[in-house]
Design goal:
The chain has two helices and no strands. The protein is mainly α. Helix 1 crosses helix 2. The protein is rod-shaped.
């Protein structure tokens, strides 16, 4: 058999029964990528939900602190009206109309302290 060095070599084609098919490896690769993408979407959604929940909790905490502050201011105002009631007829009228009584202020809420401090 003579070899012709001027002719480019022909690619060797495997026989039909030993032909390597790229279908199954690519199918496995695509399935793996789809599973990975699905996992990433689920993980991202969980992170978004957690951030939303934290933001809502922070908003509730802020509103709660503001409510405590307003309640403390109301108690202070009511206390001042009660102190004025014996000498001021307008204060006495407010006390009787709104049935204001002397009570201990809410614990932890002090007037004059803005919320968040």
């Amino acid at each position: 058999m003579t070899v012709d060095y001027n002719k480019p070599p022909s690619p060797e084609v495997p026989e039909a029964n030993g032909n390597a098919s790229f279908f199954w490896p690519i199918l496995v690769l695509i399935i793996g990528m789809l599973i990975s993408a699905g996992y990433q979407v689920v993980a991202m959604q969980q992170q978004v939900d957690a951030l939303k929940q934290e933001a809502e909790q922070a908003q509730v905490d802020t509103k709660f602190k503001q409510a405590q502050y307003q309640k403390a201011k109301l108690y202070k105002l009511a206390s001042d009206v009660l102190q004025l009631a014996p000498t001021d007829p307008n204060a006495k009228q407010i006390v009787t109309d709104y049935k204001i009584e002397q009570r201990a202020p809410a614990s932890g809420a002090t007037p004059g302290t803005p919320p968040g401090n």
